[in-house]
Amino acid sequence: MSQKADIALIGLAVMGQNLILNMDSKGFIVCAYNRTIEKVTQFLNNEAKGSNVIGATSLQDMVSKLRIPRKIMLLVKAGSAVDEFINNLIPLLQPGDIIIDGGNSEYQDTARRCNELEVKGLLYVGSGVSGGEEGARYGPSLMPGGHHEAWKHIQPIFQSICAKADNEPCCEWVGEGGAGHFVKMVHNGIEYGDMQLICEAYDLMRNLGLTQSEMSKQFARWNSEELDSFLIEITRDILNYKNSEGELLLRIRDTAGQKGTGKWTAIAALQYGVPVTLIGEAVFSRCLSALKNERVEASKLLKGAATKPSVANLQNFLNHIKHALYCAKIVSYAQGFMLMREAAKENGWNLNYGGIALMWRGGCIIRSAFLGNIKEAFTRNPQLSNLLLDGFFKKAIESGQESWRQVVSHAFMWGIPVPALSSALSFYDGYRSEKLPANLLQAQRDFFGAHTYELLGQEGKFVHTNWTGTGGNVSASTYDA
Ligand code: NBP
To answer: Among 9, 15, 162, 191, which residue has the most ligand 1 atoms within 8 Å of its CB, making it the best to mutate?
Structure first.
């Protein structure tokens, strides 16, 4: 009888194929399966030729080829395909077997599946996988969560195939239920934010008349400093890219699509009541970009600022842009970690924030030197309540904030949209405000809806005032504004 496989992988599209080849290269025996069976043979005869990968012709065949406890990883389209496979696998498995979903599933679906499988004695893991095709092949960032009992069985495979940063694996157990997919969702939201910030820096530079080659040089310089990251690096290369028709970027339509994980992050932020403003703006910016036809019409009708973009000292201003980008990025990550902290509280997850920073440090799209600084912040103080309060980041914003304010105010005067840079600055100013104008909000709500208010020094005691002398003295018990 031939050797049994260590793991089965279902879904032979780009992610599945590359993860299989990665596992194979690390010495694990993988059994490959796909809904369209012909793709298994195609894969074995082409990409996996010469490897130890084995194929299966049916789910029964696949299950019979696995070591116990069986480990089956799904890399299929998120949604009903995952449920269909789980339902078809249940009758074929034994208690203690493990199903792993490595797709971009919604974290609440993962939590539901965890509960459903627990009743049947099966272990379920929802794992974030980041890094795209190349990451999957040579070392992704992996964010597994679900039934903790599964971790000791999958840990050797996961920590062997994942990316490494400073010799540490970019994969650690995240937490119970949907925790792994939640953290992956926030990662994707942060990716949206980073990309939007870079786009705003690019927009400012091109409005100041820089050529693509000059902008590329700026990004190259920034990539050797505190902004050192994969996204800055690829932006440098995109700006430099030319084909037979010249600079490609100039010919790309200015409308961006989305697959939904950024939107999910913004929805979760609203649901948990956490002001994740920068990612929200990044999602809305993509929505605004998609209104191309409307924007073309509006551009002919609506007047903008009277002041044309220009600066006395270009080099100085470019440095201001770098600081603005860095400060706003700090706010974005601080907001993302605030969201994870609140979700952890509500879901009973014991998240290791330094460990999460390390998981994102290598392999994934937001990989950067900056994540190393975040890891260090949580190592210094594992109980850190907000990244903005860490000494390193506090100092970074102190030294960059004048530049940040210059950039945002100039952009407003020139009529250049900078939603992410500016919303981050407003958040920063709000977060550091001892007094916000919400006293007036309380008064307004009580005035028109008898919603009551709290007096300073008497927190927790809600009172109502008859502001006009004509309303009653009864306060509202329902919340409607
Ligand atoms: P896709 O998301 O394109 O999914 C293709 C796979 O899903 C194929 O195996 C296909 O089988 C299967 N499938 C579909 Br589509 N509908 C199905 C159904 N109703 N029942 C059973 N199988 C079905 O592949 P991918 O881009 O490799 O991504 C896989 C997962 O990883 C997704 O959740 C994705 O969001 C996530 N992810 C992707 C990336 C990336 O860079 N692409 C990065 C990180 C995470 P077939 O061959 O029979 O049609």
So the answer is: 15
